[in-house]
Automatic annotation (TrEMBL), chain A:
Aminotransferase class I/classII large domain segment(s): 48-426
Subcellular location: Cytoplasm, Cytosol
Catalytic activity as recorded in UniProt: an S-substituted L-cysteine + H2O = a thiol + pyruvate + NH4(+); L-kynurenine + 2-oxoglutarate = kynurenate + L-glutamate + H2O; 3-phenylpyruvate + L-glutamine = 2-oxoglutaramate + L-phenylalanine
Protein name: Kynurenine--oxoglutarate transaminase 1
GO CC entries: cytosol; mitochondrion
Membrane-spanning parts: none
UniProtKB/TrEMBL annotation, chain B:
Protein name per Swiss-Prot or TrEMBL: Kynurenine--oxoglutarate transaminase 3
Pathway(s) the chain acts in: Amino-acid degradation; L-kynurenine degradation; kynurenate from L-kynurenine: step 1/2
Organism of provenance: Anseranas semipalmata
Domain Aminotransferase class I/classII large: 65-431
Biological role stated in the UniProt entry: Catalyzes the irreversible transamination of the L-tryptophan metabolite L-kynurenine to form kynurenic acid (KA), an intermediate in the tryptophan catabolic pathway which is also a broad spectrum antagonist of the three ionotropic excitatory amino acid receptors among others. May catalyze the beta-elimination of S-conjugates and Se-conjugates of L-(seleno)cysteine, resulting in the cleavage of the C-S or C-Se bond.
Quaternary structure note: Homodimer.
Cofactor(s) the record lists: pyridoxal 5'-phosphate
Record GO terms (molecular function): cysteine-S-conjugate beta-lyase activity; kynurenine-glyoxylate transaminase activity; kynurenine-oxoglutarate transaminase activity; pyridoxal phosphate binding
InterPro entries for this protein: Aminotransferase_I/II_large, Kynurenine-oxoglutarate_AT, PyrdxlP-dep_Trfase, PyrdxlP-dep_Trfase_major, PyrdxlP-dep_Trfase_small
PANTHER family, A to Z: FI04487P, KYNURENINE--OXOGLUTARATE TRANSAMINASE 3
Recorded family membership: Belongs to the class-I pyridoxal-phosphate-dependent aminotransferase family.
Keywords: Aminotransferase, Lyase, Pyridoxal phosphate, Transferase
Protein's gene: Kyat3
Record keyword DNA damage present: no
């Protein structure tokens, strides 16, 4: 009889390995991402994109000129590695500026670290400070990456919502009408609370936390010895004479706060991906450890250009021609323009005190997108998808900024980005007006 | 306490730690003591704070030092590369976010270049991830695919970040050294080899991956097809992944060929191949790299990426894409930068080797990469009076920087804890340096014995 070689079967341990998923467990539950889906939809269908948060106008001339200068210069070492924790001219100017803003002497080498956008700064914070078993308080609605980042670090996100109070009769709601309930907030702190994430000015609502609200949070941080991860990327975008207050400047907070900032938002250059952290060396040393074991260096040339941009702003600080002053003035006008458009057609905007986002209630337009009972998808998400496909107008559903369990709590709102040219806002207005006409005409 | 009883179902060390945590919290400590405790680092970065680069780049930053230490070119990148960045900087829409997993024009040209090299179809959107340098690719790969309970084989000497990254992922690094062939002329990188039986003994059911670096930093070894076959056979037998760090892929010298392990049978589906713009185009400060592999692996790297930094800078990616198109079109031409750079570097390699030989040293001539290692024992520098509890090569390099104004990197930084002391007489020089830098090094080396 011919010898038949029996098929070799893998050993038991190999079988066990083959049946295990190849990916690490830390990726469980963090694979979904709203932007991947919505950015694609906007790219495919939108004629007017008020969805993803980026300006469609250029960064200021002095910044692009600085970049061009940097690249045309003789200094070819700008194409090579710079200091890993931040290009010296950049950390020096950041230390100068934030030292001034915080009323403190900052050491550029130990109190500042540059990151690949504020996004990577957030990542370093969670990885450096959140261990399995730690809880992190996240205020809803929140910039969506906080939740998966906490989870990836093995932490447990604990959510506390901003709750809207009805505005005075006849007035439009403002982001200032959304508050934390002090008792509710206090109840979220426990022995396991490692940190709270604060985002002020807040994306997506545009809320600018008041001194009283910050003091409430600060008191709880001190009482429970929690850290504060303070995402202040929109720090320069505050309207109506409001003041952006830095929680790190409050009593007892400097030692326990990491402040996060972004050149992308400061200088309308989101594609440059330059961000930073500012804080006490005691905390930043751990961010440095994380950074040196993950990306290590950030791109040199853009850091040099951003440093020059800040140099210019420091010289013009507080003056009318300061970019920070001009940008916020310009954006306030755009905010008001979009608010007007929305009100005219029956969408109810919540006036943001800051950022370049505003959230609007689309209940009046419900008839266009009928409810689907028992649908897994929150209403506003279905609405936003329908709107971009049928009206060419892209926006982001507010439910994207809530945890899974709370996605249906505020599902009649969508978020618009108004950091857009005149022509874009006009085109949005045209779409909205036409839409309204279609609804009202027989 | 409810919390306490729930956590006692954890095992071993964690229970102990939690118990002491709870105990110490219940004792009234001073505010600053409590703060110091609560605000300490996470377990994942415990012990990962020191870093050879942080130590040595600072020391060598003094411009009067001839810096042959850190691996960064002081030669100019090609002019068209700089021009493309200047062009990209002038395009307004490139100042805003691009596609998270990689700028479309960049991933498209990468897929073209690598399709040609690998001889297989590569989907730009599912098989490629653009990252912050080769470093970022290593991090994304390890975070995506490695976890507690896994073992990862690391070949010594190794690019130093492999060990802390594997540890940060909670896994155990398992080391295997390259050794000089007995009777071979250890003066070539080719003579540093893995013992196949020893390598096989490192694989077991826990082995999740092996990290391969070819061309190799610091030795400059270019693994042969036969050597890669040994590794791939073991990967297939044990169903192990291969993380192939090929950042120096174009820098191979005459008589050598860079072979991608992913092109060996059975390997594409289990390999992540890492590349680097910094090394390809002599622009380390651009910090762009990429991971290429099958969709079912790359998708997990993409998940890590979307939760770590989301997207890489746009203008740099566009410029890199344009530079790649230029060279892609001339991949049959010897003037292509992928071939002209190694030609340029080969003469620098030979010069560096000669300078070291003239001082009586026996450098290991690399077949690839831009580093050269050398045993400095014959120089007989007595550092026994230097107090520091550091390996000889750390002390030697520090001494050489201060007294000879020449810097290098100590090789023991590239070894695991058990083998460190065996290689403490070796240092690493980087030779991707302009002529005037090598001239200055020559002066120092020629005058070495004069005091």
């Amino acid at each position: 009889l011919p010898l038949v070689k029996a098929p070799s079967s893998p050993s038991l341990s190999l079988q066990a390995k083959m049946s295990r998923p190849v990916q690490a467990r830390r990726l469980e539950g963090v694979d979904k991402n709203i932007w991947v889906e919505f950015v694609k939809l906007a790219a495919t269908y939108s004629t007017v994109n008020l969805g993803q948060g980026f300006p469609d106008f250029p960064p200021p001339d002095f910044l692009t000129d600085a970049f061009a200068r940097v690249l045309s210069g003789e200094e070819h070492m700008l194409h090579q590695y710079t200091r890993a924790f931040g290009h010296p001219p950049l950390v020096k100017i950041l230390a100068q500026l934030f030292g001034k803003l915080l009323g403190r002497d900052l050491d550029p080498m130990t109190n500042v670290m540059v990151t690949v956008g504020a996004y990577q700064a957030l990542f370093c914070c969670f990885q450096a400070f959140v261990d399995e078993g730690d809880e992190v308080i996240i205020i809803e609605p929140f910039f969506d990456c906080y939740e998966p980042m906490v989870k990836m670090a093995g932490g447990t996100p604990v959510f506390v919502p901003l709750r809207p109070k009805a505005p005075k009769d006849g007035k439009l709601m403002s982001s200032a009408d959304w508050h934390l309930d002090p008792a509710e907030l206090a109840s979220k702190f426990s022995e396991r609370t490692k940190a709270i994430v604060l985002n002020s000015p807040n994306n997506p609502l545009g809320k600018v936390f008041s001194r009283g609200e910050l003091e409430l949070i600060a008191d709880l941080c001190v009482k429970h010895d929690a850290l504060c991860i303070s995402d202040e990327v929109y720090e320069w975008l505050v309207y109506d004479g409001k003041e952006h207050i830095r929680i790190a400047s409050l009593q007892g907070m400097w030692d326990r706060t990491v402040i996060i900032g972004s050149a992308g938002k400061t200088f309308s250059a989101t594609g440059w991906k330059v961000g930073w952290t500012v804080g006490p060396n005691r905390l930043l040393q751990h961010l440095r450890t994380m950074h040196q074991n993950s990306v290590y260096h950030c791109a040199t040339a853009m850091q040099e250009a951003v440093a020059q941009g800040f140099q210019r702003e420091l010289e013009h600080y507080g003056k009318p021609d300061s970019y920070f002053v001009q940008l916020s003035k310009e954006l306030q006008q755009k905010r008001d323009q979009l608010v007007q458009s929305l009100v005219a057609v029956g969408m109810k905007p919540i006036i943001p005190e800051g950022t370049y986002f505003l959230v609007a209630d689309i209940s009046e337009f419900k008839s266009d997108v009928p409810d689907v009972p028992n649908s897994d998808e929150p209403y506003d998400s279905r609405f936003a998808k329908w709107m971009v496909k049928n009206k060419g107008l892209a926006a982001i559903p507010l439910s994207a900024f809530y945890c899974g369990a709370h996605k249906n709590n505020y599902n009649r709102f969508i978020r618009f980005c108004f950091a857009k040219e005149e022509a874009t806002l006009k085109a949005a207005d045209d779409i909205l007006q036409k839409w309204k006409l279609e609804k009202t005409s027989p | 306490m409810l919390f306490a009883s729930r956590s006692f179902c954890c095992l071993g060390i964690r229970t102990y730690q939690l118990r002491t945590d709870l105990l110490s919290r219940s004792i009234r400590l001073s505010a600053s003591d409590t703060m110091a405790f609560r605000h300490k680092n996470t377990r994942r970065i415990e012990g990962l704070d020191s870093n050879v680069w942080v130590e040595f780049t600072k020391v060598a930053a003094d411009p009067s030092i001839v810096n042959l230490g850190q691996g960064l070119p002081d030669i100019c990148p090609p002019s068209y590369v700089k021009e493309e960045l200047a062009n990209a900087a002038a395009v307004d829409r490139l100042n805003q976010y691009t596609r998270g997993f990689g700028h479309p024009s960049l991933v498209k040209v990468l897929s073209q270049v690598y399709e040609r090299v690998c001889g297989r179809k590569i989907d730009p959107f599912t098989d490629i991830l653009v990252t912050v340098g080769g470093y970022g690719s290593l991090f994304s790969t390890i975070q995506a695919l490695i976890e507690e309970g896994d073992e990862v084989i690391i070949i010594e000497p190794f690019y130093d970040c492999y060990e802390p990254m594997v540890k940060m992922a909670g896994a155990k690094p398992v080391f295997i050294p390259l050794r000089h062939k007995k009777g071979g002329n250890a003066a070539s990188s080719a003579d540093w080899v893995l013992d196949p039986a020893e390598l096989a003994s490192k694989f077991n059911s826990k082995t999740k991956a092996i990290i391969l670096n070819t061309p190799h930093n610091p030795i400059g070894k270019v693994f042969t097809r036969e050597e890669l076959q040994v590794i791939s056979d073991l990967c297939i037998k044990h169903d192990t992944l291969c993380i192939s760090d090929e950042v120096y892929e174009w820098l191979v010298y005459k008589g050598n060929k860079h072979i991608k392990i992913a092109t060996l049978p059975g390997m594409w589906e289990r390999t992540i191949t890492i590349g680097s713009a910094g090394k390809t185009y002599s622009v380390t400060g651009w910090k762009l790299g990429w991971s290429i592999g099958p969709q079912n692996l790359i998708k997990h790297l993409q998940v890590v990426h979307q939760n770590t930094l989301y997207t890489c800078p746009t203008p740099l990616q566009e410029a890199l894409a344009q530079a790649f198109w230029i060279d892609y079109k001339r991949m049959d031409d010897p003037d292509c930068y992928f071939y002209s750079l190694p030609r340029e570097l080969e003469s620098k390699r030979d010069r560096m080797a000669q300078l070291l030989q003239e001082v009586g040293l026996k450098p290991v001539i690399p077949d690839g990469g831009y580093f050269m290692i050398v045993d400095v024992s014959t120089l007989n520098v007595d550092l026994s009076d230097v107090d520091e509890n550091q390996p000889y090569d750390y002390k030697f390099v520090k001494w050489m920087i201060t007294s000879k104004k020449l810097s290098a990197i100590p090789l023991s930084a590239f070894f695991g804890p058990e083998t460190k002391r065996q290689f403490e007489k070796y240092i690493r020089f980087c030779f991707i340096k302009k002529d005037s830098t090598l001239d200055a090094a020559e002066v120092i080396l020629k005058n070495w014995n004069k005091q």
